[in-house]
Amino acid sequence: MPAIDGLPPLRDVIVTHGLSAKKALGQNFLLDLNLTAKIARLAGDLSGSDVLEIGPGPGGLTRGLLAEGARRVLAIEKDRRCLPALAEIAAAYPGRLEVIEGDALDIDPLAHLTPPIRVAANLPYNVGTELLVRWLTPPDWPPFWDSLTLMFQREVAERIVATPGSKAYGRLALLAQWRADPHIVLNLPPEAFTPAPKVSSAVVHLTALPAPRHAADPKVLERVVAMAFNQRRKMLRAALKGLAPDIQDRLIAAGIKPTDRAETVSLEQFCALARAVAAG
């Protein structure tokens, strides 16, 4: 696959630029260009979209996104050692790759992107969940992005798509599924990465819904869900007693048994409870 763009294989790039992965930055490089191209294809038709990529590292996924026809790619990279390798990719795709050095948690990418926008990234393990939560909880909805195609540790990916009654079901599942349609689209073993992490990984593709699945005030819903799962072993009448003195009545009004536990309650029921709580 090195022939996709005339650039060297990624293993050669890493040697040339001295890019050993740094644990402190949550780096695990995906060096198989067949795999990075596959992930780029899983992001959908990129030809009419700008793409935001976080943590490109030596640029494997970056090259896949550009080769698959992304209109433009904005890559945010914290590790300045990677910048020369990314500059070589930018030279091979004139005008289509912009690289910003910095922390993705501190940078507003919207000044550099034109809608429609997709996000595709092999997210650094140490910031992946925080970035996802930010993208799922903007002040206004629909968000700036049409879709997210993101690599996570498999355990995190399973939490995003989890259903009621499973151990993985919790705040992240409800947050993701309220406003988006998430699916695991690819599983990757540790040996696909350099260095190999201790856990398996998975790619999750999330498509933004035009509106949330069920009506609810975002702040109230977040508070209800957080309280419910912070004490997930307790019955909801006990876990949520701080929300309202008549919480038992509000649970019943939302179609929830006061003796239920959080992990058995559906998204629709949580939204109904958020509306009952907001009603005062």
List keywords for this structure.
Rossmann fold; Helicase, Ruva Protein, domain 3; 280 residues; elongated; 2 domains; two-stranded antiparallel sheet; 9 strands; single chain; alpha/beta
Strand content: 15-25%
Within the CATH hierarchy, at the fold level, what is the topology of the largest domain?
Answer: Rossmann fold
- The strand count comes to 9
State the CATH superfamily name of the largest domain.
Vaccinia Virus protein VP39
- Look at the structure and give the mean pLDDT: 94
What is the CA–CA distance across the termini? 60 Å
Assembly level:
single chain
Q: Could you give a short account of the major beta sheet?
A: 7 strands, mixed
Taken together, the total number of domains comes to: 2
Structural class determined from secondary elements: alpha/beta
How much is the radius of gyration in Å? 21 Å
**Unreliable runs, pLDDT <50, ≥5 residues?**
none
CATH architecture field of the largest domain: 3-Layer(aba) Sandwich
Query: How many distinct helices?
Result: 11
Order of helices and strands: HEHEHEHEEHEHHEEEHHHH
What does this structure look like?
By secondary structure, this protein is α/β, with parallel strands linked by helices. Helices cover 35% and strands 18% of the residues. The chain has two domains: 2-208, 3-Layer(aba) Sandwich (Rossmann fold), CATH 3.40.50.150; 218-278, Helicase, Ruva Protein, domain 3 (Orthogonal Bundle), CATH 1.10.8. The strands form two sheets. It has a seven-stranded mixed β-sheet, with helices on both faces. A two-stranded antiparallel sheet has the order 1-8.
